[in-house]
């Protein structure tokens, strides 16, 4: 199980304190590395330092709540064995089953569109 960081992070205070105390100065967190994979590095740091592992944030039907792409991209996505999303997803859902009706966040979505999605899903 791995939760991609692009759509955001949810950490309790204890995990945030551990991360803040270690991410820059602890060599186990590899602070010298740079790249687009900060979510992997955050997860690795928390596991190495405190044994913390990602929580399964999917809904009761196994649909994602924190989504690494736009809603349209998720609706159109099809499994590809060479793609990172397929490789790192557990029981990946496609099409209309891709996304939880209780989705929390989408990556690559600006605030105005997110507000529109919220209105359509929860206020109509």
TrEMBL record:
Record-linked InterPro entries: C1GALT1/C1GALT1_chp1
- Spell out the subcellular localization from the entry: Membrane
Its record classes its membrane topology as: Single-pass type II membrane protein
Q: Which UniProt keywords apply?
A: Membrane, Signal-anchor, Transmembrane, Transmembrane helix
Q: Can you provide one Gene Ontology molecular function annotated for this UniProt record?
A: glycoprotein-N-acetylgalactosamine 3-beta-galactosyltransferase activity
Q: Does the keyword Coiled coil apply?
A: no
Mind telling me which GO cellular component terms the entry cites?
A: membrane
Q: Which PANTHER family match?
A: BETA1,3-GALACTOSYLTRANSFERASE, GLYCOPROTEIN-N-ACETYLGALACTOSAMINE 3-BETA-GALACTOSYLTRANSFERASE 1-RELATED
**Family, per the entry?**
Belongs to the glycosyltransferase 31 family. Beta3-Gal-T subfamily.
Q: What name goes with this protein?
A: Hexosyltransferase
Supply the source organism for this entry.
Octactis speculum
Q: What is the lineage of its organism?
A: Eukaryota, Sar, Stramenopiles, Ochrophyta, Dictyochophyceae
């Amino acid at each position: 199980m791995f939760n991609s960081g692009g759509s955001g992070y949810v950490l309790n205070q204890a995990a945030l304190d551990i991360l803040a105390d270690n991410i820059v100065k602890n060599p186990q967190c590899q602070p010298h590395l740079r790249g687009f994979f900060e979510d992997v590095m955050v997860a690795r740091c928390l596991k190495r330092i405190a044994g913390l592992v990602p929580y399964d944030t999917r809904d009761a039907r196994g649909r994602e709540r924190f989504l690494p792409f736009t809603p349209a991209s998720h609706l159109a996505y099809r499994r590809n064995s060479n793609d990172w999303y397929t490789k790192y997803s557990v029981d990946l859902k496609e099409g209309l089953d891709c996304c939880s009706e209780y989705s929390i966040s989408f990556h690559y979505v600006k605030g105005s569109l997110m507000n529109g999605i919220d209105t359509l899903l929860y206020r109509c």
